Amino acid sequence: MTFEQIREKLGNFTVGIAGCGGLGSNCAVSLARVGIGRLVIADFDVIEESNLNRQYFFREQIGKKKALALKENIEKITGSTRVEAHDLKLNEDNLPELFGECDVVVEAFDLAEMKKMIAETVLEKMPEKPLVMGVGLAGYGNSNAFCVKKIGNLHICGDEETETSDDLPPLGPRVGIVSNMQANQVMEILLNGYK
Amino acid sequence: MMRITLNNKEEKFDSSQMTVSRLLEEKKFTFPYFIVKVNGKIVKKEEYESKKISDGDDVKVIHMMAGG
User: Fold this and answer.
1) pTM of the full predicted structure?
2) Are A86 and A112 in contact (CB under 8 A)?
3) Which of A79, A122, A170, B22 qualifies as a cystine partner to A131, CB 3.0-4.6 A?
């Protein structure tokens, strides 16, 4: 497929992004660059200086709401992706409402308990919906550890090993790899015959 | 005795049935957050004590790690 054909096809799809931090901001930007028709993004958080080591924001955006700032940044890159930004905390009740119409949902949380919450909610309430998760991305190096595991409609990107801590921080390169593996997986799901 | 598939590997147990809780304990799944699927269906925490696993079942225990 040529890029024009890819862009035309992706233009028909909507992707939900749960979280606009390291995984969500980079994944959303990648998907917008290749021509996804519509993004539904959600986060309750505010941009801090410490986020700039990995998240797709700028210094002058410190203090702004992540979901709204990400919409702004995407619209600076492309005018062909419609972005619906929600400044709210996702939970098991509002998730199906917000992402019910999306063709694929991307999990882009930092907390393990939130990752568990979205996986259980999607598998229980929207079992037909593909969910692309990012699990295991802390520290630096060891790029060979990354892979994609598919379990039914669950697609898990990451090393499934490293957990963030003070001594194993989340950093631009590895978070960037996993967020783009997620974007790449979304493309594969949408372009290879799904729907 | 029963044989199940646990994370794509065959496992043998002496008993013919066990709860999800018992399995997690026996296999020492220690991460604080994980999701459990039995034969493709999600099993939530409140069902771990009651959900029985028996011969031939396909069980997945997927760890959730912080970071994003």
Assistant:
1) 0.95
2) no
3) A122
| Cα separation, B37 vs B57, whole angstroms | 10
* A156 inside 8 A of chain B by CB: yes
Strand partners, B59: B6, B38
Domain boundaries of chain B, sorted by first residue: 2-63
Closest CA to A106 of A12, A192, A36: A36
Q: Which class is A3-191 in CATH?
A: alpha beta
DSSP B14-48: SSSEEEHHHHHHHTT---S-EEEEETTEEE-GGGT
The shortest CB-CB distance from B68 to any of A109, A113, A156 is to: A109
B29 touches chain A (CB under 8 A): no
For residue A125, the chain B residue with the least C-alpha distance is: B42
pLDDT band (50, 70, 90) for residue A194:
low
Mean pLDDT in residue range A136-162: 97
Of chain A, the percentage scoring pLDDT greater than 70 comes to: 98
Domain boundaries in chain A? Answer: 3-191
CATH class of segment(s) B2-63 = alpha beta
pLDDT, tens digit, for every residue of A52-75?
A: 999 999 999 999 999 999 999 999
A124 near B CB under 8 A: yes
